[in-house]
Specification:
The protein is α/β, with parallel strands linked by helices. Helix content is about 40%, strand content about 15%. The protein binds flavin mononucleotide (FMN).
């Protein structure tokens, strides 16, 4: 069996840690997804789904923000707009070992707007600054912001400049910028990830105007060649959908962006690496599908990928599904594979 790849790389962000990250994605980048992605890259910074501050204050914390050391570097994304609640939630979260607390200023969903947070906060830079300052006062890990290039009619370059400059006055040094605006009325969150055009140049100019800030670009980046090109202009790239839907793209991240000597894990390495995590999850009463639903795209583009995906989609949701279901799926895609024969 391959060496487990989920080795803890420490909980401190080092310079350059933002060169490559996987985006926060609700319902997608849960702890199982992150454990799986960690089999493919030791160095990428992995973001949680957004968790709201009230959920952390009043909810089941272990379920919402619990994490294991094997996840390695992990950043927690918070949603909210009440400085006191965010500060308290940040302090609690930092105690769970996250290396960064990120504030969501990019989500356009109606539910989030009703709570007056997410992307609509781009209209209130002073409030965002207040939230960030309150969080910074309670944690000793960096507090960062993920935003859009604009919202609604407030989408000029000077609007973005004012937003960033106001928030940066708190000492916030790292901004992740989804390079498209959000229309808060009329578009669904999904449409808001597709319809407003991408404007990478605006993010590049932001970096040029603020060399002192760490600027991470996000939106529509589908492969590592494009990621490398962006790194000629900004400090880091963040992949969302591509990392989730075609996770094997992550396998070359370490070698390309962090350590030329890093090994490139095979798909089978990733499967073998995640098995101990699945075993622990099943032993604690969890379901196979909680983990393997994030793995459906692993063989994307490979012959027989469909067999792997279909076998898991049809069989993993069963309450009594075990590791055997995953191993069967692997045998379909790679008939020569001997499941853990050496064990
Ligand atoms: C299913 C899904 C859920 C998302 N949830 C969040 C979230 O919780 N917080 C956030 O800041 N962005 C969220 N996003 C937006 C992504 O983080 C990212 O900004 C967006 O998908 C653009 O990047 P991409 O083109 O690489 O996917 C979500 C995106 C998707 C597809």
């Amino acid at each position: 069996m391959a060496t487990p790849r989920g080795v803890n790389e420490g909980t401190r962000l080092t310079t350059g840690a933002h060169r490559f990250s996987v985006a926060p994605m609700m319902d997608w980048t849960d702890r199982h997804c992150r454990a799986f992605h960690r089999q493919l890259t030791r160095h990428a910074l992995l973001y949680t789904e957004m968790v709201t501050a009230p959920a952390i204050l009043f909810g089941d914390r272990e379920r919402l923000i619990g994490r294991s050391d094997e996840e390695g570097l992990g950043a927690l994304q918070l949603g909210g707009s009440d400085p006191k609640a965010l500060a308290e939630a940040a302090a609690i979260s930092a105690g769970y070992g996250y290396c960064e607390i990120n504030l969501n200023v990019g989500c356009p969903s109606d539910r989030v707007q009703e709570g007056r947070f997410g992307a609509c906060l781009m209209a209130e830079p002073e409030l965002v600054a207040e939230c960030v300052a309150a969080m910074q006062a309670r944690v000793d890990v960096p507090v960062t912001v993920k935003c859009r290039i604009g919202i609604d009619e407030q989408d000029s370059e000077s609007d973005l400049q004012r937003f960033i400059a106001t928030v940066a006055q708190t000492g916030c040094r790292t901004f992740i910028v989804h390079a498209r605006k959000a229309w808060l009325k009329g578009l669904s969150p999904k449409e808001n990830r597709e319809i407003p055009p991408l404007d990478y140049d605006r993010v590049y100019r932001l970096k040029a105007q603020h060399p002192e800030l760490t600027i991470i670009i996000n939106g529509g980046i589908t492969d590592l060649i494009a990621a490398a090109q962006h790194l000629g202009h900004v400090d880091g790239v963040m992949l969302g959908r591509a990392a989730y839907q075609t996770p094997y793209v992550l396998a070359d991240v370490d070698r390309r962006f962090f350590d030329p000597a890093a090994a490139v894990p095979s798909r089978i390495d990733a499967i073998e690496g995640i098995i101990p995590h699945i075993e622990r999850h099943l032993a604690s009463g969890g379901r196979l599908n909680n983990v393997v639903r994030h793995m459906l795209g692993l063989f994307h583009g490979e012959p027989r990928a469909r067999l792997f995906r279909r076998h898991l989609s049809e069989n993993a949701p069963r309450a009594d599904a075990t590791i055997a279901t995953l191993l069967e799926a692997v045998s379909l895609v790679d008939p020569s594979w001997q499941p853990l024969a050496a064990e």
